[in-house]
Specification:
The structure holds 2 protein chains of 2 kinds.
Chain A: H1 8-31, H2 37-40, H3 43-56, H4 59-90, H5 92-107, H6 114-121, H7 125-149, H8 153-161, H9 166-203, H10 209-218, H11 222-250, H12 257-262
Chain B: H1 2-7, E1 19-28, E2 38-48, E3 53-57, H2 64-72, E4 79-84, E5 87-88, E6 96-99, H3 111-121, H4 126-139, H5 155-167, E7 173-177, H6 185-201, E8 205-210, H7 213-219, E9 222-226, E10 234-239, H8 248-251, H9 255-281
Classes of the chains: A mainly alpha, B alpha/beta.
Chain lengths: ~260, ~280
């Protein structure tokens, strides 16, 4: 087992090497015309396009809009999911009343709502935020609901014996317990918020990285499309990293399964 | 020594007992429609005097915890009632602290915040509650462990934190549900001695549930034997006239301890066998 544990630096080096190898393969395949560069682009041009965006500053307003949409959808969806999740988990009557509708709303492919939101909220930021919220809400909601249902009955009884009132139980037992479940869903939901923003832009907008991709696609500029995808991926990784850092800060009390994973 | 043993006897003259279960019956309706409702406890009565340490022993699965939950007010009996210092109990028993069998600490709070939780619920200021919490952690031998989270503590340490968490509120009655059953023998004897020491410092009324007869005798003023379930009820009571202070390991080797053990075991054995036979059938 010992030999399989790579050092941190070694692992990072191998990962970068893998990335480089993929780009080299891509380059080789397109340069030798095994893949048609018209459809598959050229990694050097893709990187050059992406670089030019940042050097000229053309990308920043678009990126800012996409990120604002993502963060707003993520924040609002999480708060809504947390609130509704706590509420339904603690009032069995309401939850049994709403159960079939919630299941239905979750099963519906919600991307299809994008055109409706565009009609309702226009082509600006709001329609993308609304789409992102519908994606984030259900992930957080189901996790919170589950989290509250699975609070240890002994911990609960103990808090009651120590004198906790109903509102104190909510604040000091249910909420922290649900929070740990929310965090396990945040990686998924931050990705979903991003999906909501970009898909929304792609389906109709005047700004954002999704809009840039849509424009390039209209001009058959495949290298710019790939450059857009590359930028989106990089920022998705960045958001995920921020969530990981926040998680490590806020869930210090948890046995470190995360430490096992990153080893 | 003898005087102390005398004092430890049930206090019949000092007004109402700290805790009295009167004719308590607990019937749980079966989850599925067709099955019979299950009677865990039937017509059980027992008393704990002020400052008295009472243990309840019985075969496993005989409804001991049900009795304790009734005394805590966590479940209300189907019939019968509970009196706390003479007053009928409605809702949670605010005079009682409860030490649970399984882990009851809030995993998202470190040790000192767990111990301070009850004070916080009562509106005591943070500075004050934390300094009292640190004091109690020191009393249970965990000085300097305040910033550890439950998963960073051993089973015995978690029990100490839970003990401090309960005792910091200075309850008049302490209910304990096999609190040390998950610990190894050495840790367990240490904890038992520490419990006796804490108890003798300010005599609280203790109702201690266990399936371990030796533990019951070593700790208590009085041992109550329960019948095998279902429909458990007390079937015998024994005053433990061993001198205090006791060392739980040493007291086990005295002749009086063995006599008491033999007397009680004679009664308990039949119930254990019954309980075992029922479990095999079930």
């Amino acid at each position: 087992m010992r030999s399989r544990n790579l050092g941190r630096a070694q692992l990072l080096f191998l990962r970068l090497l893998l990335l480089l190898a993929v780009f080299a393969l891509w380059h080789a395949l397109t340069a030798w015309k095994i893949l048609d560069p018209f459809f598959f682009g050229n990694p050097l041009v893709v990187l050059e396009n992406a670089g030019r965006w940042f050097v000229s500053g053309k990308i920043y307003p678009h990126l800012a809009i996409t990120l604002v949409e993502t963060v707003l959808a993520f924040g609002a969806g999480t708060v809504l999911g947390l609130g509704v999740g706590l509420w339904l988990a603690l009032s069995p009557l309401t939850s049994s009343l709403l159960e079939p509708y919630i299941k239905g709303a979750n099963a519906m492919p919600r991307v299809i709502l994008a055109p409706i939101f565009a009609v309702w909220f226009g082509l600006g930021i709001l329609s993308k935020v609304a789409l992102g919220i519908t994606l984030v809400f259900f992930i957080v909601f189901f996790n919170v609901y589950q989290g509250v249902k699975e609070v240890s009955p002994v911990v609960l009884a103990n808090a009651r014996m120590l004198g906790a009132s109903r509102s104190q139980l909510l604040r000091y037992v249910y909420l922290p317990s649900a929070t740990s479940w929310v965090f396990s869903s945040l990686h998924t939901s931050v990705g979903m918020a991003f999906v909501g923003a970009v898909v929304g832009e792609y389906l109709g907008s005047a700004a954002g990285v999704g809009y840039l991709i849509l424009q390039a696609e209209g001009a058959f500029d495949i290298n710019t499309v790939f450059a857009g995808i590359l930028v989106l991926t990089a920022f998705a990784l960045l958001l995920d990293f921020i969530v990981t850092v926040a998680e490590a800060r806020l869930l210090r009390w948890r046995p470190t399964s995360a430490a096992v994973e990153t080893r | 020594m003898n005087v102390e043993a005398e004092q430890a006897r049930p206090h019949s003259s000092l007004g109402a007992p700290a805790l009295a279960l009167e004719n308590v019956t607990c019937t749980f309706s079966a989850a599925s429609g067709g099955a019979q409702p299950y009677t865990a406890v039937r017509a059980a009565s027992l008393q704990v005097g002020a400052g008295e340490f009472v243990s309840v022993v019985g075969p496993t699965g005989c409804g001991k915890s049900t009795l304790l939950n009734v005394a805590a007010g966590l479940i209300s009996p189907t019939s019968g009632g509970v009196r706390v210092f003479g007053q009928p109990l409605a809702g949670l028993n605010r005079n009682a602290g409860y030490l649970f069998q399984s882990d009851s600490l809030m995993p998202w709070r470190d040790a000192q915040d767990n111990v301070a939780a009850g004070l916080q619920f009562r509106g005591v200021g943070r500075e004050d509650s934390l300094s009292r919490s640190r004091h109690w952690l020191a009393r249970v031998g965990l000085e300097g462990f305040g910033d550890r989270y439950p998963h960073q503590l051993s089973g015995g340490m978690r029990k100490r934190v839970a003990l401090a968490q309960t005792l910091i509120l200075d309850p008049k009655i302490v209910l304990m549900d096999e609190p040390f059953s998950a610990l190894d023998v050495q840790t367990r004897q240490l904890m038992e001695n520490e419990l006796l020491e804490l108890w003798s410092a300010d005599r609280k009324s203790v109702l201690f549930i266990t399936h371990d007869l030796e533990e019951a005798i070593a700790l208590s003023d009085r041992v109550i034997v329960l019948s095998a379930g279902p429909a458990t009820r007390p079937i015998g009571e024994f005053a433990i006239d061993l001198a205090r202070p006791r060392d739980v390991a040493e007291v086990r080797m005295t002749r009086r301890f063995l006599e008491l053990h033999m007397d009680i075991w004679e009664l308990l054995k039949a119930e254990v066998l019954k309980g075992y036979a029922q479990q095999k059938l079930g």
